[in-house]
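Note to self: keep these together.
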Amino acid sequence: MRNVDTFAKIRGRSCAYLLAVLFLFTGGAPARGEALASDFSSLAWTDAFAQLHGRLSKEYAFTDWKGIDWQALGDTYGPRVEAAQAAGDFEAFYLALRSYIHEIPDGRVRISNVAEIDDRYIGGGFGFAAALLDDHRVVAAWVGEASPAWEAGLRAGDELLTINGAPVQSALEAVSTIFDGNSATLEDLRNKRAQYLARAPVGAPIALTYRRSAGDPPAFAALTAYDDGKLSLKKTYPAAVVSDTIRDLILGLDTPGPIPEAMVEWKLLSADIGYIRIWGEVDADLQGAGTCPSTLSLLRQAVQSIGDRGCSGLILDLRNNIGGEDAMAAAMLGSFYAEKTFYEYQNVYDPPTGVRAIQAAGAGAESPALWIEPAEAVYAGRVIALINPKCVSSGEGVAMGIRNLPNGETLGFFGTHGSFGLCGPEAALPGGLVVHWPSGQSLDANERIQLDSRDGVGGVEPTIRIPMTLENAFRIAEGEDVELEEAIRLLNRPAAVQ
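Structure:
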């Protein structure tokens, strides 16, 4: 594992761990009043759950917006926790908590993982990765040539028909994603189910039928899950093409990829196209140099350098963006806006009163709103922002700002995560578990919740949506960056023929 201590102080909207050190992302202004953190770790499991449930039901920012029935959740999962307590079964307690947390469709609601338990449920693979296509077929996008699936005759491109006797669509609906992060949108949930369709406990059997072409008779394969190092998850989107090194560092996970030089990286793709990657809207010392370079300054320098070189097109890569500070996201957008523009109101929760109220976005602010203020150098060329479901929180705010530009587009297979709430509260539970949730809301100019999902829809949609065809699923599994290639192709074409 890489030395995560190089990831220095991080503040902002996302909530996460760097091993034993907590870096709290508050997304601008945190909730006022009493301490945001609660320690229930020494309580009995039933008492810890009751305390957690009580805080969540009072403080969670989107109870009405998402229609969360806290009474029903307590009635469902309270008895499971009681049964785990009576049996002294920590695994059952952990699974009950993860299932409870995953009833809330919000990526800002999360609980820490216990890898040893997770692996007992999803540590095995079968040698293939499944993909859900836009035409609703489920196919094997990748099959390892040394795997049981290959030996049984399965090949990349084969359509999966049944899993353990059930139609594949029914099997998908039954797949649990509780060991991954919460899905805020149905789009993200469906894709995660396809990814975990090919995961099981090591030694678990699976029987599947498939066909190579329409009209072919079904073929049969009986497979047994083996420890593949989670290889099948690395062959699906976005893991196959987009690095997630920084999020892995935050979560304390093994990460084989190189650590980025900084939170903003840029280069020229051609004499006429610039490329800027934004990993997050936070300052961080990724290389352990002892100082945190200004992420905002790096972004402004990159935009100015690309503009000085006369590039008529710019690709802003926001895929797998971890989020961060709202004020920084708005300031970044100042490099693309020639006029002062509204960004958000922050509707902040006050624990002593239990009331949310819009508060000033920054000390001494003349207006309660957060505004996009034009930077000294504003890029006026065509901008395409690459987005995906792992673009979350303040990263989604940047994507929203680019989408709203007359010269801006968002491009991707899928939209952003749809989790834009102001995070801050947390609770420590027995067994080293920690739960985080958003207590504040981001509001638009009409004081309506913006970007956070509702009824499975939310986030920033691609204005240019790439279809998930069989060919594109193949290309992804081989590590080809289809989204970047399409953005380059579009920027190389005259705007009149788009």
